[in-house]
Write a structure and sequence with these properties.
disordered N terminus; single chain; alpha+beta; 4 domains; about 1150 residues; about 25% helix; metal-binding; six-stranded mixed sheet; transmembrane helix; 20 helices; eleven-stranded mixed sheet; 7-stranded beta/alpha barrel
Length: about 1150
């Protein structure tokens, strides 16, 4: 239906419905409410017509102004609007047929090992394995190495947690700086000594305080191979709860720092302490140019199975890859831990005797009761034989005669005496072993790359017919257990407040990066010294590093000491405040009509956020905007790459409010009550809600003022199980019939609730079907055994018990023009379910908000369970790092806690007819313990330590916000054979809903009234990017010298894999999929300053690591040749993004899509020529 042409029809429909209500005086109240909802919907359609006309008028005004101001303005001011195509509509998402085929294709190259099959086949028993308790007895024949000696690389290392039992700074002060200082001295004493390091957060902090002589010494050690940097991220991140945005960002920060200061690029990944491992991390390392990686914390039964099959070394391939382009070689450590007692061989009692830091009189001792002995001429032979026996047994678990033996532990090599006792005693052992031909061993100190180089050589030598010795493995390694039934699924939820704060920080950092880059280009063009000399880039760098620090596997996981958690939170909070300044000041410069007037404003913040958080451990509250007859500007920023229609809600001082577009058109507004407490309505604040239409990556300006000429509508309230103290403005009715069903609805859905305010049914209006979808809360306790739940472990006392309340909770039902919602107030949860009256993405899902407070609970964990009639049986799906979907099987042979998995952004269940998705704005633990159910653990308070080193429980709970969306979709054209595949994809609607949830708009109000004119909007893109392409970041690169910005930026795009077999009507987005093609015409990016070709790079922004297929001279089509009219194919997973940008951008990160790896590599090519 054409909305503009059908106003008359809408008015007739409204009159008809009113006539039905008048005649239906005898109908009960529920029918009247539903009819009123329909009237409201029709009136909203009229309002949208007015908004369309308003936006057309804005565009005409902006176009006319640009003509008057001339070409200069059109290039620099972005005053031209994006036009009416960004407005909501009933249109469908248009998916290219080839994009639809991707999710359903199959291939002939299957992995040798699929982890889903392993979990199904392995018995998960725990027999006593002898000296290797969790393994088996290992034997060998003495002559096995006659033809080829055993080659052993002993790799000294020190694992330094950037915060755990101490803060980052305290660890550095007390331990880490001395490790580095001693390393420089002790490695120089003997060129055969080696050392390895991972965490750049510590390395950079030390680098800042050392002199030039020491820096030169470090560079020399790196050059001669004695010292190696592995992975090179800011931290060694958690791989379960971290989002891929943050994983990439901390990798970039570490690698860019290394490139700038020491000129090295790490070659291998090293992850010895994260609690389980994700293929997303393997994929990012592969895209970063790595060829090898190492992992350690894997379920002990899986390790035993892999050891028996000799698959501890393998090529890790992504589930979606039907070829082999995502393969990365992976070494899995076989034993319990990465400490010295568990790395030389299967018997920790013997291996501990070769940790010479534990010599009698030292700070450490061997818990097995046998101390190490210093190596002397008298005992060197017997000790060498004892150690070689362990090496040989360990080597029997692998397929070559090359052996890796890590030598280190947490914060090792801190004291110079440790360097001496380890290297000197091992030196004597090595010298003796290498001098004994009958030992058939070649042993030396080495780095991780030394080992992998030797291994590659052995693979090349021993492989037959070009076939590698090593198998291919696909899947993930969650959930981790280190012994018995001790599953580390508790940390998926521990300290959920900070998991929420992490995602808020991510959305702010991304928004600030993008806006800052646009503003920087404008400031450079117009020579705005005030902006160019501002500390904004320093703020961005600090925020990147604080966010990166929080990805550490004892930070975002919630597994650090209380005061360390406060330190992490304070860092995030401080950066959050600085990012708000960057966003506000960048936005202000971009919407100023005359850029030069920016210099005249003295305030350090021009626009301030509508939300204000007062401390690192508190939830944000909305500022109250004081209204008067003088209009105030409201600027709304859309950080997404798609034009967006969404609802904005702000708090104002008066209920008589008018909201105007830039052209002066009055917008329809819902005025709602602000609740000071559960049953008290504020006398001084009111919430106003209205729909905004914002261009991709753009800003739009609105005016708000106190006026009696507003197009505002008061929300209406129905109260259940109690009364409220009203301010006399709103209609608040007490429910007459307590047994009457509670319903709310919008154009897509009707929801039914019970008297406690919990959802019990959903009606989809598209087909009129009723779905029994219920929502409940429940409690988990902890076992009465000796080992109980703690920060890491989830050890419940059985199935969850229903959340019981003594009296029905107070329930409020809100019905308004922009949204309707049901809120209920339990002792531990304030629960809200909302439907938006928007013809677009947000109208098609159910928003669920839970404010959780279990600060007075004792050894309890609170969960939200969604139950449905979907016949999902024992299968469900969770995302990995917000990047890909991993199928899961709930297994009865495993304990309850083993069936809990990490959820970063979504989880879903499905049958042949429907899919039910829970989308999340924060990382939490999730399960599906019964068919048709999704259960998410929202918070946990545990009084004791779980004996994993932390030494405390989790008692520092905060009032925590959890935000979700529930999306029910109809499935079509289902192929049951495809359901067996180990890969699944969200729908396009689900992807976009997740983007809306995780990247909300930023409403900002002026701190003072500007004396200069503002543009009506800032629209950097001429149109939205394709629906399946997400702009991950637009990151200004640091200058080669100093700490400031450069003229380079990294543009990172993600092409998302999606399942087409879902209806996608009424999304409100006029975008389509294009097989990954993004327009590179200068008109597509309206920041026209000067054009320069873009250079493709790896995901970590190194240009010289790009495959030859990306070079200009590649003959594989489609190549990019024209600097003005050209397209670049975003081939899933490998792809560089776009070619010529109107501003200087010479670094370009590879696209990170759920890839199309089996397609021809030529489809990832882009122009790389340089001009001038």
């Amino acid at each position: 239906m054409n909305k503009i042409d059908d106003n008359t029809a809408v008015e007739k429909s409204k009159k008809k419905l009113r006539w039905r209500i008048t005649r239906g005086g005898g109908l009960f109240q529920g029918q009247l409410s539903m009819l009123q909802e329909k009237i409201d919907h029709l009136e909203r359609l009229l309002a949208e017509n007015n908004e369309i006309i308003s936006n057309i008028r804005d565009s005409v005004i902006n176009l006319s102004e640009s003509v008057e101001e001339g070409p200069k303005s059109s290039q620099g001011d972005f005053s031209q609007g994006a036009g009416p195509h960004l407005l909501p509509s009933q249109s469908s998402l248009q998916a290219h047929p080839a994009d639809c085929l991707f999710a359903s294709r199959s291939g002939s190259q299957h992995p040798d090992v699929q982890m889903l099959d392993v979990y199904s086949l392995v018995p998960f028993d725990n027999p006593d394995g002898g000296v290797w308790k969790q393994g088996f007895d290992i034997t060998y024949q003495e002559d096995e190495w006659d033809a080829e000696p055993l080659q052993v690389f002993v790799v000294p290392h020190s694992h330094n947690d950037p915060g755990w039992l101490k803060t980052f700074n305290d660890y550095f002060r007390d331990k880490t700086q001395y490790i580095f200082n001693n390393m420089v001295l002790k490695l120089k004493e003997d060129s055969s000594r080696k050392f390895m390091w991972s965490e750049i957060s510590y390395f950079s902090k030390w680098w800042d305080i050392i002199d030039t002589q020491k820096k030169d010494a470090v560079k020399s050690l790196l050059e001669n191979g004695q010292f190696e940097i592995v992975t090179g991220g800011w931290v060694m991140p958690d791989e379960a709860t971290s989002h891929y945005f943050a994983l990439i960002d901390q990798l970039i920060e570490g690698h860019q720092w290394l490139e700038k200061h020491v000129g090295v690029k790490p070659r291998s990944g090293w992850a010895i302490d994260p609690f389980g491992h994700s293929p997303t991390m393997a994929y990012l390392l592969k895209r970063a140019g790595f060829s090898h990686m190492l992992i350690q914390r894997i379920h002990y039964v899986v390790k035993r199975h892999f050891a028996r099959q000799k698959t501890l070394e393998f090529y890790w391939r992504q589930n979606w890859d039907l070829g082999s382009v995502t393969d990365i070689f992976c070494h899995m450590m076989p034993f319990y831990s990465y400490d010295i007692p568990h790395t030389c061989g299967p018997d920790p009692k013997i291996c501990c005797q070769f940790d010479f830091t534990r010599l009698p009189g030292g700070r450490f001792a061997c818990p097995w009761g046998i101390a190490p002995e210093p190596i002397t001429l008298a005992n060197v032979q017997s000790r060498a034989r004892m150690l070689l026996d362990q090496y040989r047994k360990k080597s029997k678990l692998y397929r070559t005669k090359v052996l890796l033996v890590p030598l280190g532990d947490d914060f090792r090599f801190c004291e110079y005496t440790e360097w001496d006792v380890q290297f000197k005693n091992y030196g004597q052992l090595f010298k003796f072993m290498n001098s004994q031909p009958q030992f058939k061993v070649k042993i030396q100190f080495g780095t991780l790359s030394d080992y992998f180089d030797a291994l590659d050589k052995a693979d090349t030598t021993e492989s037959k017919n070009g076939q590698s010795l090593f198998p291919v493995v696909s899947g993930d390694f969650f959930t981790y257990a280190d012994r018995d039934d001790h599953y580390w699924s508790g940390y998926f939820t521990s300290r959920p407040f900070y998991k929420w704060l992490d995602r808020v920080m991510e959305s702010h950092l991304r928004a600030a990066e993008i806006l800052y880059h646009f503003a920087l280009k404008q400031a450079q063009k117009y020579k705005i010294k005030k902006f160019l000399s501002s500390p904004h880039y320093t703020s961005l760098t600090e925020a990147r590093r604080n966010l990166g620090l929080f990805q550490h596997h004892d930070a975002i996981t919630g597994t650090a000491k209380d005061w360390v958690v406060v330190d992490y939170g304070t860092r995030l909070f401080h950066s959050l405040m600085l990012l708000e300044k960057v966003i506000g000041n960048s936005a202000f410069l971009l919407i100023l009509k005359d850029k030069h007037t920016y210099e005249s404003y003295s305030s350090d913040t021009f626009l301030e956020m509508e939300l204000k958080q007062k401390s690192q451990d508190s939830l944000p509250r909305k500022n109250i905007i004081k209204l008067s007859a003088e209009p105030r500007h409201l600027v709304v920023y859309n950080p997404l790459e798609h034009g967006r229609s969404t609802m904005v809600s702000i708090h104002v001082s008066s209920p008589t409010v008018q909201v105007l577009s830039a052209s002066g058109e009055t917008l329809e507004v819902q005025v709602s009550a602000v609740w000071d407490a559960e049953r008290t309505v504020s006398q001084t604040a009111y919430e106003i809600s209205f729909v905004v239409h914002i261009p991709p990556l753009g800003l739009k300006v609105y005016k708000i003022l106190e006026s009696g000429n507003s197009n505002s509508h008061l929300a209406e309230y129905t109260l259940y199980n109690g009364e409220a103290k009203d301010n006399g403005i709103f209609s608040m009715k007490n429910a007459v019939d307590a047994k009457e069903a509670i319903t709310i609805e919008n154009s897509f859905l009707t929801l039914w609730f019970d008297q406690s305010g919990l959802m019990k049914k959903m009606v989809t209006k598209e087909d009129g079907k009723h779905h029994d979808i219920t929502l409940q809360f429940s409690w988990y306790g902890t076992t009465n055994k000796r080992d109980k739940s703690g920060a890491y472990l989830f050890l419940p006392d059985g199935s969850a018990k229903p959340y019981v309340y003594e009296k029905p909770p107070f329930v409020t039902v809100t019905r308004g023009r922009m949204y309707s919602e049901v809120s209920c107030f339990f002792d531990h949860v304030t629960h809200r379910v909302r439907l938006y009256h928007i013809q677009g993405i947000e109208g098609q899902s159910v928003e669920v908000s839970n404010i959780v407070d279990i600060r007075n609970s004792f050894n309890r964990e609170i969960a939200m369970r969604i139950s449905s009639e979907i016949n999902s049986q024992n299968k469900f799906y969770t995302d990995l790092n917000g990047y890909q979907i991993q199928p899961r099987m709930t297994m009865s042979k495993l304990p309850l806690q083993a069936n809990v998995y990490p959820m970063t952004t979504m989880a879903y269940i499905q049958d042949t007819k429907h899919r039910l998705t829970l989308l999340s704005a924060q990382s939490l633990g999730v399960s599906s313990l019964s068919s048709g159910q999704i259960e998410v653990i929202m918070d946990r308070r545990l009084m004791q330590d779980d004996n994993r080193g932390l030494g405390q429980g989790v008692r520092d709970n905060k009032i925590t916000a959890n935000l979700f969306r529930i999306l029910l979709e109809r499935r079509t054209d289902i192929n049951l054979e495809e359901e067996k595949n180990p890969v699944s994809y969200p729908s396009l609607l689900s992807h976009l809903t997740s983007s809306f949830l995780n990247h909300p708009v930023f409403p900002m109000t002026e701190k003072f009234s500007p004396t200069s004119k503002l543009l009506g909007e800032f629209a950097p893109l001429a149109s939205s990017l394709p629906c399946d392409i997400h702009l991950v970041n637009l990151r200004t690169i640091q200058a080669k010298v100093g700490s400031g910005y450069s003229d380079e930026a990294a543009l990172i795009l993600h092409r998302k894999g999606f399942d087409c077999r879902f209806p996608s009507r009424g999304t409100g987005l006029l975008c389509s999929t294009t097989q990954g093609k993004v327009s590179c015409k200068l008109s597509a990016w309206k920041a026209s300053l000067y054009a320069e070709p873009i250079q493709p790079t790896t995901v970590l922004c190194f240009a010289d690591s790009v495959p030859s297929a990306c070079r200009r001279d590649s003959s594989l089509a489609p190549a990019v040749s024209s600097p003005v009219s050209s397209k670049v194919h975003l081939d899933a997973g490998l792809t560089p993004c776009t070619a010529s940008f109107p501003w200087r951008m010479t670094r370009l990160a590879l696209a990170l899509a759920n890839p199309r790896p089996s397609e021809a590599p030529g489809k990832m090519c882009t122009r790389r020529s340089r001009s001038g």
